[in-house]
Amino acid sequence: MSSPAPHALPNDMRNPGVPLQTDWFEQIAVNTPAVERRTATLTTRRTVKKAWQAAWLVNAIRCMDLTTLAGDDTEDRVRRLCAKARRPLADHIMGGLGLDRLTTGAACVYPTMVRAAVKALEGSGVPVASVATGFPAGLMPLDLRLAEIRYAVGEGADEIDIVITRAHVLDGNWNALYDEVAAMREACGPAHMKAILATGDLKTLRNVYKASMVAMQAGADFIKTSTGKEGANATLPVSLVMVRALRDYGERTGQRIGFKPAGGMKTAKDALAWQILMKEELGNDWLQPDLFRFGASSMLADIERQLEHHVTGRYAASSRHAIA
Fold it and tell me: Structure pTM?
């Protein structure tokens, strides 16, 4: 198993956006039972075992945004997180897999912790992502949300995860949503922008599709399911609808937009399921960290246990692995 290369997002992959085109989505219909049937059979139609499964789990680590977004975050916790991002697997597992280098896709923190993360990750090639715009609710005046983006970018963030105003979606106010996301995209400057739709708050799959399309038209480089703080976070049906919107947008514009499911994913089995979705719907290009990320830090512990079993034939207790 060869070592994966570092993976900064190239600037030429930025989404320039397009003027708001409501005719691209206003008449969209989503067959919910068909979506549920499709996602229910994903993991039964394609399985990966043994060395192939290990390779897919290693790839999941490469695509993971290792995250701490707690009210009691400290710089010490962020440094520990970044150490895990730089070296996510124990040395004996790395050796058993034949890897000499492996990092996570990014480390994601609050804006006030960006500087500590940048320092801790210096020279690693691991990007620093920051949430912003009044995460997780986003219910702050727009000028303050834009100022928070500029602050995080000024502290050194390479990627910004913004949250949208859910009321704009629920009210069908697409002009307001477009203008908001476009302003956020401009405030991000050189940093890549992931638009969090908080799909658990959007009520219907039709709303999920429409919000996805507006966010991409307004210039989002990634669309992301959830903050991880909603009652319902990433699910395969929601993800399928977002991925189909992403595919439709690409067919219309030629732009390749990234996808990030977040929240609710905890096991290695989840890591395989979402990668199967990406491969089935979009192909191998969307199994790379420049177009696909997991927002699922707790998933890393189970992946590490599964990879240790692959290497040694034994499962270790969770306490044997370093906590991110």
Answer: 0.93
